Amino acid sequence: MNKLLKIQLIIGIVIIFSLILTTPQTIEMFKLLIGMALTILIVITIGFKISNKIPITIAPTLFFLDLLVVVAIKIKFIYFISTIGSVTVSTYTDYIVNYFVILIIGFIMSVLSVFVLSSTRKIIEVCARFNIDALPGRQMSIEVDYNSGVITEDEERDKKITLQKQVNLFFALDGVVNFITLSSTFGSIITGVTIVVRSLIETLQFNTTFVHNLKIYIIPMILEIFIFHFILMLLAKSVSIYIRKIMKENYLSINRY
User: Fold this and answer.
1) Residue 107: predicted pLDDT
2) Which residues cross the membrane (predicted)?
3) Average pLDDT, 10 consecutive residues per value, the chain (257 residues)
């Protein structure tokens, strides 16, 4: 399974470096779309296909790498929209008339993201509390098996190490979910500030109205918020699925300890 971590690391590095390199606008948009598609595919694959096969030692690192790639794509998207100018942006957004609908969609996605992240954190807290409360009893059970000769000294040590790794896993995943929550919150704030500042710069440079520039930039930025929160929700959901599978394995194997 270390091979999976290496593949994920290579893909993440390739995506990040491809976003750093400066290319023409058409290629930049193409790179952003490819990066978003690959990120969504990676998150879905890890969370819904092979999450039960990920060792507990590399699972937090794997989810954290996914999050870093998502944040890199968000930064590149904001930079791309902020640098191409209102004239180029308007060529992509002229067909959209109802700005109120766009705002409602962005708001709904933000609220859904908050609910999903809150539920994931609650799942982690409950599972961590369950494991911590059951830890002394499971350790005593291991010691009883060792004293009765059922297991060897090496097996006793391995089982205790496994129990400690499971407890550490929930604390590590809680850190990942906290980072996802912070990324979601501050990402939305940064996007809002970027919209206002870029609209103000366009107003001062080209002597246009602030409201006109705001309408131009608000559509791609709301689209960015929609995509960003959607990927974060998938990532948080994959974390919760992985945790439930780990808890199920612990429940099924509890008689062995």
Assistant:
1) 79
2) 7-27, 33-50, 62-84, 96-117, 169-196, 216-236
3) 62 66 66 70 67 66 77 78 59 56 76 83 80 78 81 82 78 82 84 84 81 76 79 82 74 44
Q: DSSP per residue over 94-137, as a string?
A: TT---HHHHHHHHHHHHHHHHHHHHHHHHHHHHHHHHHHHHHHH
Q: Two tokens at 45?
A: 């694959």
The residues near 174 (Cβ < 8 Å, ≥ 6 apart) are 121, 124, 125, 128
- As given in the structure block, the two tokens for residue 116 are 């999903």
Q: What is the sign of the dihedral through the CA atoms of 181, 186, 191 and 192?
A: positive
Conformation bin of residue 149: beta by default, left when phi > 0, alpha when psi is -120 to 50:
left
Q: Are 76 and 32 in contact (CB under 8 A)?
A: yes
Report the alpha-carbon distance of residue 246 to residue 166 in Å, rounded: 9
Contacts 24+ apart (CB under 8 A), 119-126: 119/240, 120/177, 120/236, 120/237, 120/239, 120/240, 121/174, 121/177, 121/178, 121/181, 123/240, 123/243, 123/244, 124/170, 124/173, 124/174, 124/177, 124/239, 124/240, 124/243, 125/174
Residue 208: per-residue pLDDT:
78
Q: What residues does each domain of the chain span? A: 2-256
| Residue type (1 letter), 204 | L
